[in-house]
Design a protein that fits this description.
This protein has 355 residues and is of the alpha/beta class. Helix content is 30%, strand content 25%. The strands form three sheets. It has an eight-stranded mixed β-sheet, with helices on both faces.
Length: 355
């Protein structure tokens, strides 16, 4: 069985194996099933207690769908999901109720995820109403405690979401997620809708809460610079599949998969002297449709190092170095000769330009 976690004494809190999330395509008067949108296709990873796993990729690659499926906000098509030892992949929604306090989510849009007709105190206290038997005074004390934890003024408890800034609304969402003392939180692009000046404050808050409360995060983002700041390990997703997973520093210093290399080459460098000498990898073509992915490797239609085998056989997601996993024929032992030839060819005739 695939083991994507680093060798450590820490306990595995989240174990995902072969996760698939397909959305049916129907047509005709009788809504006949004619295909599927493969939003998440055979994804596997582990997350340890106290760790942050960053999940990155371009828009539409399936990151948010993966996060929601892991928390069973969607019913997955196939696969195994274990959180804190409990198998929840095929568990009925009614049976998941007692497990909900263990796993929570911080949503992308803080305005859309908060009920505009509820006060801050009611929003943060709603999980306490649903899952605890605390008295009214105890609930109010807990609400104030949570507001203090995320840096909100207690005097604002009876205000409504529209009276707050984007960063403050996201803090309300974080406080709500913390209400039941969860072990695992999925952060679904929690800073994407915020101003740049506020993003660092929210990420620093998440890190502070993790250190203080021992939280475990799946941090979903398309901001590679912010993921480098907060994540311990990084998984790169493309067209519904994880194509590379590695410790943060190793992945940013030496990306293995051609897509990861192209993705990181697009990250701006603050130092203008270094930026002037960087070579950027320019990918041609468009991302294929998840309803009709290409045969073989999903990335073969855009890969600058593609060779014939890539268009015929899907690469195995395997460990190529200690703690590093990649799905690419360039690193397969059985295809090493062809892969090396392709790599040499790509180096001789790179599809790159200087920016």
């Amino acid at each position: 069985m695939l083991d994507t976690a680093p060798k450590t004494d820490r306990k595995k809190l989240v174990e995902v194996r072969g996760l698939k999330m397909y959305f049916p395509i129907t047509a005709g008067v009788f809504r006949s099933h004619i295909g599927d949108v493969k939003a998440v296709d055979n994804v596997s990873f582990d997350i340890f207690e106290g760790e942050t796993l960053g999940l990155v990729g371009e828009s539409g690659c399936g990151k948010s769908t993966c996060g929601r499926a892991v928390l069973r906000l969607y019913d997955p098509t196939a696969g195994s999901i274990r959180i804190d030892g409990a198998e929840i992949g095929q568990t009925g929604q009614s049976d998941l109720r007692h497990l909900r306090p263990t796993m929570q989510m911080v949503f992308q849009d803080p305005q859309a995820s908060l009920n505009p007709r509820m006060t801050v105190a009611a929003i943060i206290g709603e999980p306490l109403e649903e899952h605890t038997k605390l008295s009214k005074a105890e609930k109010l004390d807990r609400i104030y405690e949570l507001m203090d934890a995320v840096g909100l003024n207690r005097n604002f408890a009876n205000r409504y979401p529209h009276e707050f800034s984007g960063g403050q609304r996201q803090r309300i969402g974080i406080a709500r997620a913390l209400a039941l003392n969860p072990k695992f939180i999925v952060c679904d692009e929690p800073i994407a809708a915020l101003d740049v000046s506020i993003q660092a404050q929210v990420v620093n808050l998440l890190e502070e809460l993790q250190d203080r409360l021992g939280l475990t995060y799946l941090f979903i983002s398309h901001d590679l610079s912010m993921v480098r700041h907060i994540a311990d390990r990084v998984a790169v997703m493309y067209l519904g599949q994880i194509i590379e997973l590695a410790p943060r520093d190793a992945l940013y210093d030496k990306p293995l998969h051609p897509y990861t290399q192209a993705l990181l080459s697009a990250v701006p460098e603050p130092d203008p002297n270094i930026e002037a000498g960087r070579r950027r990898i320019i990918l041609t073509g468009d991302v294929p449709s998840p309803a009709n992915p290409p045969k073989g490797c999903n990335f073969c239609t855009r890969c600058p190092k593609v060779f014939d085998l890539c268009k015929q056989v899907e690469p195995e997601f395997r460990e190529v170095e200690h703690g590093r996993y990649v799905a690419c024929h360039l690193y397969s032992d059985t295809d090493k000769t062809a892969g090396q030839a392709a790599a040499n060819e790509a180096q001789e005739h790179p599809t790159r330009r200087t920016t």
